[in-house]
């Protein structure tokens, strides 16, 4: 699952370097109409409906917003969900400064940017504002699934969160990609795919 500002095509190069072929890059915003409200909980409910259709064991992988949704899905009962791979994930509300900064950027971005990712400016602002209610730190401590936690060395906004997430989880491995920034699926696809391949092999997937 991609991040905010991306689409499923952001995973093309990662998928190209994977040892497995049974991979689906989901579109988080593909079914939204322009007049619909948008929040993290709404996206999570829509994702839950999609993965409920999977009738075989699967692993969820997400970056940034996609990583948050991956973690949220792990807290919902599913006998088929067997593991998680998350990159650039937050488990608590971002700082007020970071949210304000993000909102200011959104207000000045051209309309075509939002059209490209399948959102309106209003929906993007609603979604980022809904992150103020995010708090997964307590619930994740009891989450038993094996998890690969990934972060770029230069992703300063998410690096400390990656260490915190790994410490919360009982069955996780943290990997920091040297010189990597936030959009690792685009910037470091080979390195990202290597971590995924190792995760799959380690856990017998």
Give an overview in words.
This protein has 205 residues and is of the alpha/beta class. It is built from nine helices and four strands. A four-stranded parallel β-sheet has the order 1-2-3-4, sandwiched between helices. Helix 4 packs antiparallel against helix 6 (121-130). The two termini are 19 Å apart.
Summed up:
With 205 residues, this protein is α/β, with parallel strands linked by helices. The chain has helices at 12-16, 40-51, 65-74, 96-108, 111-117, 121-130, 156-168, 184-187, 189-202; strands at 58-63, 81-87, 147-152, 172-177.
Q: What strand line-up does the widest sheet have? A: 1-2-3-4
Please compute the radius of gyration using only Cα atoms: 16 Å
Helix content: 40-55%
- Extract low-pLDDT stretches: none
The H/E string reads HHEHEHHHEHEHH
The total count of helices amounts to: 9
Structural class based on helices, strands and sheet pairing: alpha/beta
pLDDT averaged residue by residue: 92
β-strand number: 4
Distance between the termini: 19 Å
Q: Mind summarizing the main beta sheet?
A: 4 strands, parallel
Percent range for β-strand residues: 5-15%
Shape: globular
What labels would you give this structure?
205 residues; alpha/beta; four-stranded parallel beta sheet; 12% strand
Outline the fold blueprint.
Elements: H1 12-16, H2 40-51, E1 58-63, H3 65-74, E2 81-87, H4 96-108, H5 111-117, H6 121-130, E3 147-152, H7 156-168, E4 172-177, H8 184-187, H9 189-202
Parallel strand pairs: 1-2, 2-3, 3-4
């Amino acid at each position: 699952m991609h991040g905010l500002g991306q689409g499923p095509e952001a995973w093309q190069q990662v998928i190209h370097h994977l040892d497995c072929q049974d991979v689906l890059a989901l579109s988080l915003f593909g079914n939204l109409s322009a007049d619909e409200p948008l929040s993290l909980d709404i996206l999570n409910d829509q994702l839950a409906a999609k993965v409920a259709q999977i009738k075989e064991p699967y692993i969820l992988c997400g970056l940034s917003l996609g990583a948050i949704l991956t973690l949220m899905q792990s807290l919902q009962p599913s006998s088929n969900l067997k593991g998680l791979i998350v990159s650039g994930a937050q488990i608590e509300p971002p700082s007020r400064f970071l949210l304000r900064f993000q909102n200011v950027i959104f207000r000045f971005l051209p309309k075509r940017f939002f059209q490209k990712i399948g959102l309106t400016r209003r929906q993007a602002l609603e979604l980022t504002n809904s992150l103020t209610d995010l708090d997964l730190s307590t619930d994740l401590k009891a989450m038993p699934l094996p998890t690969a936690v990934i972060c770029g060395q230069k992703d300063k906004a998410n690096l400390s969160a990656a260490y915190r997430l790994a410490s919360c989880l009982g069955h996780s491995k943290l990997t920091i990609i040297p010189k990597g920034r936030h959009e690792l699926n685009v910037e470091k696809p080979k390195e990202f795919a290597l971590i995924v391949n190792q995760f799959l092999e380690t856990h017998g997937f």
